[in-house]
Write a structure and sequence with these properties.
Blueprint (H helix, E strand, L loop, with lengths): L21 E4 L2 E4 H9 L7 E5 L12 E5 H16 L15 E4 L2 E4 H38 L1
Antiparallel strand pairs: 1-2, 3-4, 5-6
The structure holds zinc ion (ZN) (2 copies).
The site of one zinc ion has 6 residues, from loops.
């Protein structure tokens, strides 16, 4: 599989419903990514389809496109979908059991990690509170010293 280089490139054209951008050129109707690829890289070999390595169908960066057979393209797409669906652990490796899983609008959240992040938040606040106290105490002390002087 080829390495992607650089950022995704987009045309001003609005993507179609399926995410691809289409173009009309000289009376023909083209996929924008195929068109740009052929302009900048060369003809796409017969029977091959351009696979978006960035999985961004609207992207026309030839560095993100690799000619592959239909079968590879489908397999790659399925692998990514399957990987996300089959994710049974959070990024830290805690298992997504029904008890340990919180449903959030943006997906699943692991309770262990959620608790850990709340604890970290609390610790940070505790340190900040201590620091405020310390400053207050020093100011009072300095004021007192100033009065006594
Ligand atoms: Zn891209
Ligand atoms: Zn976790």
């Amino acid at each position: 599989m080829k390495q992607m280089k650089g950022e995704c490139r987009f045309l001003p054209n609005k993507p179609r419903r399926d995410g691809y951008v289409s173009l009309t050129r000289g009376g023909g109707y083209f996929y924008a990514h195929r068109y740009v690829y052929e302009q900048e890289v060369g003809p796409i070999p017969d029977g091959l389809t351009l696979d978006h390595l960035c999985r961004n169908r609207a992207c026309v960066n030839p560095d993100h496109l690799e000619p592959v057979t239909m079968r590879v393209n489908t397999l790659r797409g399925e692998t990514i979908t399957a990987r996300n669906a089959a994710k049974t652990r959070c990024d830290k490796g805690h298992e997504f059991t029904p008890e340990n899983t919180m449903r959030k609008p943006d997906g699943r959240r692991c309770r262990v990690c959620q608790r850990a992040s709340e604890a970290r938040y609390y610790e940070r606040n505790k340190e900040a509170a201590k620091e405020r106290h310390r400053r207050y105490y020093h100011r009072k002390k300095a004021e007192k010293e100033a009065q006594n002087a």
